Amino acid sequence: MSKLKAILLDRDGTLIEDKNYAFKIEDLEILPGVIEGLKILQKEYIFVIVTNQSGIGRGYYTLEDFHNFNNYLIELLNRENIKILKTYYCPHLREDKCECRKPKTKFIDEIIKDFNVNIKESWMMGDHPSDIQFGMNAGCGTVFLTTGHGDKHLDELKSLEIKPTIISDNFLNAAKKILQLD
Question: 44: helix, coil or strand?
Answer without folding.
Answer: coil
